[in-house]
């Protein structure tokens, strides 16, 4: 029945508040289209709801900036290695080593931050 062509129209007027409420419920469902959601609701068919896991949202809010920072550090490292292959004098090499040491320190700090974050979420999860 779902694959049949939809040829009939049902016009419904809603207040702003009613429309926001319908849209809010639609947003928490797995329906891809508002019309499908409303049709399922009107015909009393089951509606699959999704939910957001607050702890996963919190985790992602902390991990996404760390991922971006790690990507930046990785790009800097790749550029440093490319530069290493072009060095011709001892002075250039010494400057590269100093810069590389700073980058390494930054990387290790970020890795430690990630370890601590994972530990914090693991302890919270085990409770």
UniProtKB/TrEMBL annotation:
Domain of life: Bacteria
Pfam families registered for this protein in UniProt: MobC_2
InterPro entries membership: MobC_2
This protein's name: Plasmid mobilization relaxosome protein MobC
Species this chain originates from: Flavobacterium supellecticarium
